[in-house]
Amino acid sequence: METFNVKLQVNGESLELDVKPSETLLETLRDRLELTGAKEGCGLGACGSCTVLLDGLPTRSCIVLTAELEGSEVITIEGLSDGTRLHPLQESFMEKGAVQCGFCTPGMILTAKGLVERNAQPTREEIIRSISSNMCRCTGYKKIVEAVEAASAPGAGEA
Amino acid sequence: MMPANFQYRNPKDVQEAIQFYREYQGEAVYLSGGTDLVPRVKLGLEKPKALIDLKRIAPLATIDDQGEWIRIGSLVRIFNLKQESLVADYFPALKASLEATSCESLQMRGTIGGNLLQNTRCLFYNQSEFWRKSKGFCLKMGGETCNAVQGAKACFASYCSDNATVLCTLSTQIELSGPEGERRVGLDELYSNKAQNPFVLQPGEILTAILIPKKKTLGGYEKVRVRGAIDYPLLGLAFSSVNGTGKLAVGAVGPRPYVQDVTQPWQDTLGETVEALVRQVKPVGNTVLDAGYRKRMIPVLAGRLVKKVMEGAK
């Protein structure tokens, strides 16, 4: 089977991988790099639980081929904290009780991170529009919206 | 689970992409954002020998104001296109349909060209291979009969591009490049009217750009879906108007968008226009919503949409 050589960065670390053309970014992250924060839900790009940041954009890693990613930069939930200090969005999700079963949480947080990167103080409506990219089967959306709102409120520190 | 037996190619330009297509003797598929294609490959709806990734071809991702036309490269991302001031200023209906497409994350990955060339969809077709095999392959999979309408010998899958419905109201043209050269045709010529094989494309042809006449229009888009995000349309209505006349289009209820001229949007004759549209569509029970409901919503949404747009014009 022909493999494809790809150089990319994952959570700041430069990697060179030989991948099968069919290997998805989610498989690379979970099976090869043991970064199991991104979850496989539907596997078809619908649910958003596999969301990571790809060159800063929230992206469904289950429908992206690693072969497509030459020169790209990937951030997963594991790469969001600063050492043992959690990202303000992670702190806010805990504080506001925005985590129920937790399966959608990494994707929710990275989608929210993508939003606050391009819009530091989003309105509630903008938060809802952004995180509607991701599904929460526990239907805990209200707390999730509140957590993103609190983390990006004026004076909330780095968001 | 992804089948393991395809190859990946990332050409630097359109000619190289076509060359790769030739090498695989037609058994290759062009890849842009992949939000439609990769799930199709995963479900075994598509079994290519190679995916030819067009994303490294930079000229395909540009937007040019050519004076009489706005030329939109086929690989422009939906999310980027909806933020273009040209789109908001000239084509408000397109702005609305881009906004209504799926969800933000998928808009950032998906391209306008890929959105136009998404395959037709059906509740009995967009399923795993195991599911489809258990039921017996339908017409669209090369089987003998339709699984959505018992005994039917025609395919009723629906073309679910929100943006195509709008572009059909804007006299859009498309640019294609293939082994036989380049051509430019009206968007309506892209459609075969057959849900099994919805597009009229020569083997190896690449959709390189979408061209819209640069005229200020009024317009809007109404979409029926169960959830406010992610979902494909179960019905889409688009209206665009220039100087008091316009075009009304309906999508997601057949293998292509259907369009009617609206000569007097203020008059009672709108009813006849809408009836003419309704006569063309054949929604069947192949979505999560009842076919009769989707059909009954056409005049409701059309009336609401045209009224809203024309009142904004006052």
Question: What are the SSEs and their pairings?
Answer:
The complex is a heterodimer of chains A (159) and B (314).
Chain A: E1 4-10, E2 13-19, H1 25-32, E3 51-54, E4 57-60, E5 73-75, H2 88-95, H3 105-118, H4 124-131, H5 141-151
Parallel strand pairs in A: 1-5
Antiparallel strand pairs in A: 1-2, 3-4, 3-5
Chain B: E1 7-9, H1 14-23, E2 28-31, H2 37-42, E3 50-53, E4 63-65, E5 69-73, H3 78-82, H4 85-90, H5 92-100, H6 104-109, H7 112-116, H8 129-135, H9 162-167, E6 173-178, E7 181-186, E8 206-213, E9 218-224, E10 235-242, E11 245-251, E12 258-262, H10 270-280, H11 291-313
Parallel strand pairs in B: 1-3, 2-3
Antiparallel strand pairs in B: 4-5, 5-8, 6-7, 6-8, 9-10, 10-11, 11-12
Helix pairs in contact in B: 10-11
Structure described in brief:
The complex is a heterodimer of chains A (159) and B (314). Chain A has 159 residues and is an alpha+beta fold.
List keywords for this structure.
heterodimer; A: 159 residues; alpha+beta; five-stranded mixed beta sheet; 5 helices; 31% helix; B: 314 residues; five-stranded antiparallel beta sheet; four-stranded antiparallel beta sheet; 11 helices; 12 strands; globular
Query: What is the CA-based Rg of chain A, rounded?
Result: 16 Å
Instruction: Calculate the mean pLDDT score of chain B and round it.
Output: 95
The helix-and-strand class of chain A reads alpha+beta
Strand content of chain A: 15-25%
Largest interface, C-beta closer than 8 angstroms, per-chain residues: A-B, 32 and 29 residues
Please compute the radius of gyration of chain B using only Cα atoms: 19 Å
Strand content of chain B: 15-25%
Number of helices of chain B: 11
What gap, in angstroms, lies between the N and C termini of chain B?
A: 54 Å
Q: From N to C, what is the helix and strand string of chain A? A: EEHEEEHHHH
Poorly predicted ranges of chain B: none
Overall helicity of chain B: 25-40%
Number of strands of chain B: 12
In the sheet with the most strands of chain A, the strands line up as 2-1-5-3-4
- H-E order of chain B: EHEHEEEHHHHHHHEEEEEEEHH
